Amino acid sequence: MSYVGETLSNLLHQTAFFNLTWGNYVMILVAFIFLFLAIKKGFEPLLLVPIAFGMLLVNIYPDIIASPEETSNGVGGLLYYFYSLDEWSILPSLIFMGVGAMTDFGPLIANPISFLLGAAAQFGIFGAYFMAILLGFNDKAAAAVSIIGGADGPTSIFLAGKLGQTGLMGPIAVAAYSYMALVPIIQPPIMKLFTTKQERAIKMQNLRPVSKLEKILFPIVVTSVVCIILPTTAPLVGMLMLGNLFRESGVVRQLSETASNAMMYIVVILLGTSVGATTSAEAFLNITTLKIVALGLIAFMFGTAAGTLFGKLLCKLTGGKINPLIGSAGVSAVPMAARVSQKVGAEEDPTNFLLMHAMGPNVAGVIGTAVAAGVFMAIFGI
Asked: For a designed S-S bond to 48, which of 38, 299, 354, 362 qualifies (C-beta 3.0 to 4.6 A apart)?
């Protein structure tokens, strides 16, 4: 009987109930909320479902992301090896290739002024950088945190790794992806605050047709120019443009389809679950994380406001030919931010179609955020 009792006791004490802290229960609740937002509300489910599930797993079984040095048999947890691919910048770069293969750069080529709108939306990044310095972050940590303002998860992970801020990578990545998913909630009030009803109802002229030659030359020229000026952006900008060249060249259909479908979704699974697994209660429930989340939100809000206000300026300068709403799409959340511009514009006039116009600044924002990361790396000599 003693043997049976001891065996049952051992089994009972191996359950998670005896190891969970109040913090773990809090993070499990957050995981459930994320799953609800993703499944019930449809907020970027491709991102939130794997992130939330990784969050759930690590707070029930912390060893799932343990390093080999932390285990008795010298073998790390499953998600440790997924996360290593984040730290090595492999998954963020592959995500960019997939985004390039999925995205039509035609609206940006047809309306080059979109580059200015995409650049204006990066104001939030540099504004948050100085705020982070004031809150006590060192310069590299401040740069890694501020890039959240671009609402670009892969770039946030990439820069945190390059600047040696792997300890902050989890909160930074979760904040960036969360704000990407919450774009439909965060952006509309800001867009409406800085625009009038009349401005939101402005209809823009149809974009000019873009030739196949222009679409082929664009990724080659952008890669050459940007990577010569900022070579450190090559992993991101280079992969983004390579994926787009697959799409537009017309001679590697299999590569384009693989990059935009099978590979993209595999990488999202690996990246999402590993990012979610960095949110153990011990690592996430602290003052530093709260600062990161708050700074990321402020940066994203500032970026949205700056893009909208610059769009408002261009509206005045062009005599009302540009709808200021497309400026808010200058953040990197492709194509969610462009869809939000379309939605807010359609609320004023259901016949107003802004989606393709907003895609220009949206794509420019992806490039702009990568360039901003390159600027930080250049400043710190990385």
From this structure: 38
